[in-house]
Design a protein that fits this description.
It contains 9 helices and 2 strands; from the N terminus they run αααααααββαα. The protein is mostly helical and 253 residues long. α1 runs antiparallel to α9.
Length: 253
């Protein structure tokens, strides 16, 4: 049993060490190439994650092969902090996603203000999220009502891709909305933020930000919790194999 613990622990940390080296190398490679604004959001986070995993895996391997329980204790303490952090994060996400009524103020500040929203917007633009609206209407018609009510585009935040209906923009085609001769019914807020340019559209509109928050609450929260639980299970596997290795070192002494 003791030998199995050593083998499992060493293999897990060796794989995570190789994976972290690959992750750091890819981040540095993309940085040298000149990342897009969207890629910048992820590169530096993954770079930090890769460096942390690299040193943690190295610590585990050194502690295992040298049978140094002090190093393994540090390794287990770091994993414990990581596990507690993931549990707290998953709990907060679940509470927020199940809360009825308006989004919490801190969540709005986090996602729709300042640099965070600029990063989200750059990713939507880079992914050409609104280009799906250019797909032909199934029944062959192309009217304003068709565009607003398309059931096959539930994944597209139309608040970001279409002008608000109460502004009074005239629908010309799938990519162009004109100001009528009589003028807009409203000229404030989202109505003034709308632009036909593909990289502007209504990405700065409050309706866009609210639709993204709503989608996060419905889908993003589930994915965040699911990926967090997956990561948690993997870290717990590392943790128990580390505990087993440390206990066997004590027995040998």
């Amino acid at each position: 049993m003791g030998r199995l613990c050593y083998i499992v622990f060493a293999l897990l940390n060796a794989m995570s060490l190789v994976g972290s080296i690959y992750l750091v190398a890819m981040c540095l490679y993309l940085h040298v190439l000149g990342p897009t604004e969207c890629q910048k959001v992820l590169i530096y986070k993954y770079l930090v994650l890769g460096i942390v995993i690299f040193f943690l895996s190295l610590l585990g391997l050194i502690g295992s092969f040298s049978r140094t329980n002090a190093l393994l204790m540090i390794y287990l303490i770091v994993l414990t902090i990581w596990i507690l952090g993931l549990i707290i994060f998953a709990t907060v996400v679940i509470v927020v996603s199940n809360k009825n009524g308006d989004q919490p103020d801190w969540l709005q500040r986090k996602f729709v203000n300042g640099k965070t929203w600029d990063s989200i917007k750059s990713c939507m633009i880079e992914a050409k999220l609104c280009s799906a609206l250019n797909l032909p209407i199934i029944n062959g018609t192309t009217t304003e009502e068709d565009v607003h009510s398309r059931g096959d585009l539930d994944h597209v935040p139309t608040g970001c891709c279409l002008p608000p209906k109460d502004c009074g923009y005239e629908f010309k085609n799938l990519t162009f909305w004109a100001v009528p001769e009589t003028g807009l019914r409203r000229r404030d807020g989202d109505c003034s933020d709308w632009n036909n340019w593909e990289e502007t559209l209504c990405y700065n509109c409050d309706s866009c930000k609210l639709s993204i928050l709503a989608q996060y609450k419905q889908i993003g929260a589930f994915l965040a919790v699911f990926s967090t639980l997956e990561t948690l299970l993997v870290i717990i596997l590392f943790y128990f194999s580390g505990c087993c290795t440390r206990r066997n070192n004590k027995c040998r002494k």
